[in-house]
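Work Package 3 (structural annotation) set out to generate three-dimensional models for the target panel prioritized at the project kickoff. During this period the team completed the workflow that converts sequence records into C-alpha cells, so that structures can be stored uniformly alongside our sequence database. As a representative example, we reproduce one entry of 333 residues exactly as it appears in the project archive.
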Amino acid sequence: MKTPNAESLKLVKEYSRPVITFAVIRVPGSDRVFLGASDFKVSEADLVAAKFEPKDLYAHGSYVTGVTLAGKTLVSGGYDGKLAWWDTDKKAVIRTHDAHAKWIRKVIASPNGKIVASIADDMVCKLWDATTGTLIRELRGHAEKTPNNYVSMLYAVAFSPDGSLIATGDKVGHVVVWDANTGKELAAVEAPIMYTWDKAQRLHSIGGVRSVAFSPDNAILAVGGTGKIGNIDHLEAKARVELFDWKAKKPLAEIVADKSQGLVNKLVFAPDGSWLLGAGGAGEGFFIAIDVAGKKVIKQEKVPMHVHDFAVTDAFDSIVAVGHNKIVTYKLG
C-alpha cells in the first residue's frame, strides 16, 4: 500500500454537534463511526448520509471518553469508571463492569481485536478479554501522586502495530512500555517538559503525556503533549512531540510545532513509518505532520475545533476528527 503524502491533507466536510465529542472509532470498510461524548452517550453516525444525524445507542453515568471496536463488539468507557460492551449485531449492551476506581481516560483494542485496554486516573492500565470481558491483568507502573504530592492522571495508551507491546503515559511525563503478553515492564522513558507545575500562583499542574504511538517496526515510540506553560489557566505552549528509541531509552528528537498551540491528543504513524500525524488543540485545533527521519514538522493545518480524537481508514486516505461541538472529515492523497 502506497502511503499518501502528508501535504495532501485537505478538509472535506464539517458537521456541527451540541456536545463535546471525546472519542471516535470507525467501522472498517464503511463510512460509519461510533462516538463518545459529553452528553454521557454513545452514538452511531453515518458520515455520508444525506443528513448527519447521530443515533444514540446507550449511556454512561458521565462523559464517555473512550470507544473502540473489538470485532463486532463496541466497548466504551467513561468518567463513571465503567466499561460497557455493546453487541453491534444485537444492538444491545451485553455487559458492564465497574472497571476503574477513577475517571477512565482511554479505551483501545489490540490490532487483532482480542484484547481491550483501558486506562484511568487510578493510574492502572487494565487488559480485558474482548469476548468474555474477563480481566486478564493489571499494569501498574505509574505513581498515584506527582512529585508535588498531588494526584496524577494516566492519559495515554497505545498498542504496537503487531499487538506485542503497550505504551502508557501519565501527567508528569513518565512513559512505560510493556510486554502485552506477559505484562512485564520492558522500558520507561521520560518527557518532563510536557508537565508544568505552577508553584507560585495556583499550586496547580497542567499538561502531561496525552498521546503515544509506535512506529510500524516497533522501534520508535512517539510521545505527544505540549511544552512548558506560563499561564496555567491557558494551553498557551506550542504542540510538542518527542521521539524515542525506547529499547535503548534514548531520546531521538524533540519536535515543536511553531504554528500549532496546545495538547497533542492523538498520534498515528503513516503505514510506511515515514511520517507521523498528530492532532489536538487549545482554543483552536490542529493537525501536524512530522517527517520522522528529518525530525521536523512538514505540515500544519488548522482545524475548526479542539481535536480530542481522530480515526484513520486502513488505507490511510480518510480521517474523521472529533472535538468541541464539531466533527470534521479530511482526505489524504
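The chain has one domain: 6-331.
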